[in-house]
TrEMBL record:
One annotated GO molecular function: cysteine-type aminopeptidase activity
Ribosomal protein listed as a keyword: no
Record's protein name: Aminopeptidase
Active site, renumbered: C70, H365, N386
């Protein structure tokens, strides 16, 4: 039986407020300054002093501007760090995010079309169809998705394919592309319903992709097929490497075996036992490309592999819920940053699993771990390279408390050699398929 709020209840609430110690002071402070400014604990800034026992030299930070490409920036930044160290390029050297962005948009369109065709016999009210149409594509992604792009298309320096208005401020392009994809979904579903032949469907889809390619070329410029890489190193020596393809450039200047790098997650919900592999239905970008694969582990293992990779001198891609208990301008991520419980005299605590299960938290942003402060060989705080430019944090770098990592970090990518032998073996397991809307399928 439903119950409305009664007059007696309201009277009781008002009396309770009047009796609450400091209510008027709190009201004046919060109405004037807002909840976060009123509840901030200045001691957090003292504790989050940006000094680390392991601190990698990674050059200057990048800036994704008004786009959702953090996952792409973070991945390219980890590769840029190696180029920076191995070839002594300038501190502001970057790999082209616009290049991978172009191919991501084209591939995501194809991935969407394929999922539309797979679900064409389902009504539009079906949850999977609704999920597809809510956001046909977006800027976000995961580690395995950028790997799929690089394995197919390689990488180029930013000087070869620089940023454009649309890559740096992607809202207009995304709205326009999603309009096209939804319109195309109508046509593809109608073709299937009318029993059109596979040849007819394929021909129409090919025309749609040709149109998407044109949209991308107008918006980001057409990707280069070959180029000369010209630069001066930190010793002012001139270098030129002629007639490189994007794949050549990756092989020569990055040289990673991308199959060695694996996604490690911490998703402590009942439906995801630790030490098992997971994937997510309808999540990806490159059809027949690298599959999304996660190994779910406890936080001690999660933390340990990240520390091992940092100790080896290599930075770590990671995904988190960046908006939780953080200050963008100060560059602080700390569970003790705000004392909202004390301000309102309310217990707001939830476990990490509860936050995932009930929609309070999921992965929203990817960045790079470039340092850690170890006390008695245990992490106390982490150095984070963001991609929001150098006017936030400490010249673009953030400080993350170890407690914050426990509560709001969900994914790290490490070389599998840093995993215990039994977990390396577990990577071969056939992954359990999670629903498209599972929080572990969220895009950074």
């Amino acid at each position: 039986m439903t119950k409305a709020i009664t007059a007696d209840q309201l009277k009781n609430y008002q009396q309770n407020l009047d009796q609450h110690t400091g209510a008027q002071v709190a009201e004046r402070a919060v109405t004037k300054n807002g909840i976060l400014a009123t509840s901030i604990d200045y001691r957090s800034k003292i504790n989050m002093n940006p000094v680390f026992s392991i601190d990698l030299d990674t050059g200057e930070v990048a800036n994704q501007k008004q786009s959702g490409r953090c996952w792409m920036f973070a991945a390219l930044n980890t590769m840029r760090h190696d180029i920076h160290n191995n070839f002594k390029v300038a501190d502001d050297f970057e790999l082209s995010q616009s290049y991978t962005y172009f191919w991501d948009k084209l591939e995501k369109a194809n991935y969407f079309y394929e999922n539309v065709l797979k679900t064409a016999d389902l009504p539009t009210s079906d949850r999977k169809v609704s999920w597809l149409m809510t956001t046909p594509q977006q800027d976000g992604g995961q580690w395995d998705m950028v790997v799929a792009l690089i394995q197919k298309y390689g990488v180029v320096p930013q000087s070869v394919m620089p940023e454009t208005k649309n890559s740096s401020a992607s809202g207009e392009f995304n709205n326009t592309l999603n309009l096209k994809l939804r319109k195309d979904a109508v046509e593809l579903r109608e073709l299937v319903a009318s029993k059109a032949s596979n040849e007819e469907v394929d021909a129409r889809k090919d025309k749609m992709l040709n149109e998407v390619y044109r949209m991308c070329a107008y918006s980001f410029g057409e990707p280069t097929r070959s180029f000369d890489f010209e630069y001066r190193d930190k010793d002012n020596n001139y270098h030129i490497d002629k007639d490189l393809t994007p794949q050549d450039f990756f092989d020569k200047y990055v040289g990673w075996n991308l199959d060695d790098y694996v996604s490690i997650i911490n998703g402590p919900t009942d439906d995801k036992p630790y030490n098992h592999m997971y994937t997510v239905e309808m999540l990806g970008n490159v059809v027949d490309g690298r599959q999304i694969r996660h190994l779910n582990v406890d936080m001690n293992t999660f933390r340990d592999v990240a520390v091992k990779q940092l100790k080896s001198g290599e930075s770590v891609w990671f995904g988190c819920d960046v908006g939780q208990s953080s200050d963008r301008q100060q560059g602080i991520m700390d569970t003790e940053l705000y004392s909202k419980d004390e301000l309102f005299d309310i217990d707001f605590s939830m476990s990490k699993a509860e936050r995932l299960d009930y929609g309070e938290s999921l992965m929203t942003h990817a960045m790079v771990l470039t340092g850690v402060d170890l006390v008695d060989d245990k992490p106390t705080k982490w150095k984070v390279e963001n991609s929001w430019g150098n006017k936030v944090g400490s010249k673009g770098f953030f400080v993350m408390s170890d407690n914050w990592m426990d509560e709001y970090c969900y994914q790290v990518v490490v070389n599998k050699k840093f995993l215990p032998a039994e977990l390396q073996e577990q990577l071969k397991e056939e992954p359990k398929v999670l629903a498209p809307w599972d929080p572990m399928g969220s895009l950074a």
